[in-house]
Amino acid sequence: MLRGKLQHTPWYSRVALWIGIGLLCMILTVVGFMLAGDARSTESMKWLQFWQTLTVFILPALTAVYLWSEKPLEWLHLNQGMTWQTAGVAVGMMLLAIPAINLLSWLNQQIVLPVGLHDLEVWMQNMEETAKQMTERFLKTDHIGGLLVNIGLMALLPAIGEEMTFRGVIQGLFSPKQKKAAIWIAAVVFSFIHFQFYGFVPRMLMGALFGYMLVWTGSLWVPILMHFTNNCVAVVSYYLTERYAPDSTWMDEFGSGSTWYVGVLSLMAIIVICYFFARERSAAPRP
């Protein structure tokens, strides 16, 4: 059996193996693009979203950890559950963080690059607009079945796959003494890989929050739940807004602009909750 055969190899060898598996899986992604047919159709886009999440995030993470450890689920911290109280705190934090995320996104969008980098700035703006149009087209649906499919493809699968990769694999490559560095490195890579500059800061800080929650609880299911909650709120709010208030933008703007103070209060509340949560967890056994 191959399980755990590479557990004593140097970290750089494991990283090379993981990247190699990822590249192989990317070939499968290209094949998926070819099999999808008309990539311009919404149905093909949704098929590609499923295939990409599976081959870029889930399969490489599971395969690499299977080779690294005799207990892959334990290595990924998927063997540790969470209490209802912890789950409630996790969901509550993400709901409470919505104004703070909007505020940080708004501030991030105010960044103006130097004149010499004007072409780069235009390129990033075009990338952002293209990503926004594709997301809106992907999410557009007028029935509950389509909403449930979108929740699965845009909230559930990415939450599992991305957390396995960034918090499970990348953070797991570092020693316990390097946990803070691991959290922030994983958070930076997590934000960068989305290739959306004008959302880089809030996404990085959200990734760091997920990383700290993994360290504090010992369970990857906690950041998975938080990631799912954040994405699910976005998917459901888009559906409800398009259906009942198509001209409303309050969900995306609440906490920024004229309501910046709500975003500040939201951010302060999250910091306070993290402080007390971390202090309690450091003084009590994990669930």
Write structural notes for this entry.
This protein is mainly α and 287 residues long. It folds into two domains: 1-72, no CATH class; 76-283, no CATH class. Helices cover 75% and strands 0% of the residues. It has twelve helices and no strands. Helix 5 runs antiparallel to helix 9, helix 7 (144-172) crosses helix 8 (179-192) and helix 7 (144-172) packs antiparallel against helix 10. It is globular. 29% of the residues are buried.
Radius of gyration: 20 Å
Distance between the termini: 32 Å
Could you state the order of secondary-structure elements as H and E?
Answer: HHHHHHHHHHHH
Task: Return residue spans where pLDDT drops below 50 for at least 5 consecutive residues.
Answer: none
Number of helices: 12
In total, the number of domains comes to 2
Helix content: over 70%
Strand content: under 5%
- General form: globular
How many strand segments? Answer: 0
| Backbone structural class | mainly alpha
Main β-sheet, in a few words?
none
Name the average pLDDT: 85
